[in-house]
Amino acid sequence: MAGGELVLLTPQQPSPALNRLIDCWQMRSPIEATSDAKPPSLPTAAQQDLVQQLQDKESVHIVIASRGRGKSSCLGTALAQADNASQCIVTAPRKANAQVLLKHAPHAHFVAWDTLIEQPGSTERLIIDEAAGIPLWAIQKLVQKYPAWMLATTVDGYEGCGRGFAIHFVEWAERTFAHVKMHTLQDPIRWLTGDPLEHWLQQALLLNAAPRQLTQSIDSGVYHASELPEDALHQAFELLLEAHYQSSPNDLKLLLDEPQHYLYLHVNNGSVIAVAWLALEGPLADDLALQVQLGKRRPAGNLLPQSLTYFLQSPRLAALRWCRVSRIAVQESHRRQHIASNVLNAVRHWVATQNVHALGTSFGYEPGLAQFWRANGYH
To answer: Where in this chain does the record put each N-acetyltransferase domain (predicted)?
Structure first.
């Protein structure tokens, strides 16, 4: 391109999320054109070396790297070159996540991970792409039922809790398997190293690791995401990402743009060590509540009032103002210290000042989680 102007048609309603994207770009210095703007020839020497190493089937191979480094291509190429490729199973959070891998190994057999868990185990070797997008308990169960060969994951961004996966799964794998080999790929293959667009995306969408210390002191309390200092927002959002294996940029946009969503931050020694995502919901209008009770409407953003109204067939519940604890997360090094319970107590006191009738939550049932919520007075 020879130049030009970028004109953004912004929405009439203010959007802190859009403003964030613009601000992060404007903070960058002008980009100088380069005559060498070509991606490396493929496969790179690093990729070829990794494919060769992956042929060692006596080990469990774990490939951890940032997006765009060619992890999936390497797994697919190694699988395509394997003598027993027909005796292997590929899985991923969704089949779309394994698209690149399957392109390089078109005869590979893909099976959804939840289907694999329900099936009896076999001797087929298991390859998992974007492993951090699958719950850790499921990964552990899968590799116990099927002999693991290769696992790849992204350690930053929204492909599940990548950093948490890297820590917990690797520790578990090294205790469980006799031979574990760790691999990484440093250089991008879809763009040049140091591409300013990658840096902008990492900054704007909070894809990189958060700073360890807050540069601006804040107190523990409830905040709207749009009013938080940058490093506090980054630390809080990183905790939320690691607490939930299916996250997306929509989560950040929702926190920034939705006026009824808040974050409770527990700050200790200059760091956010715990966070709770709070959503104010309801009340629903009488005519809408009737439609919800009949199962004809499911208004977005009102999970507790619409679910309880329908399942309990009680429209009066739709007339209440609710606060839902959407997620709660505590920094790994501070867990098992009752901090989460302290956060919920603080949330309960805040709710009492917000004209809220009821406090609740919704989660995928696990005995330990159910015990935690009951212990904190949720029934």
So the answer is: 223-379
User: Tokens standing for 145?
Assistant: 């039922």
Closest CA to 127 of 111, 114, 115: 111
CB-based contact 94:131 (threshold 8 Å): no
Q: Last residue of a domain, which of 183, 212, 245? A: 183
Percent of the chain with pLDDT over 90: 54
CATH code for the domain of 360:
3.40.630.30
**Rounded to an integer, what distance in angstroms lies between the CA atom of residue 236 and that of residue 339?**
15
Give the number of domains in the chain.
Answer: 2
Tell me how far apart the alpha carbons of residues 297 and 289 are, in angstroms, rounded to a whole number.
Answer: 9
Q: CA 331, CA 269: separation in Å to the nearest integer?
A: 13
Contact 361, 373 (CB under 8 A): yes
242/104 same-domain check? no
State how far Cα 333 lies from the chain centre: 20
Q: What is the mean pLDDT of residues 8-28?
A: 79
CA neighbor of 121 nearest in space, from 92, 94, 89? 89
We report the CATH number of the domain holding residue 66 as 3.40.50.300
pLDDT score at 1: 47
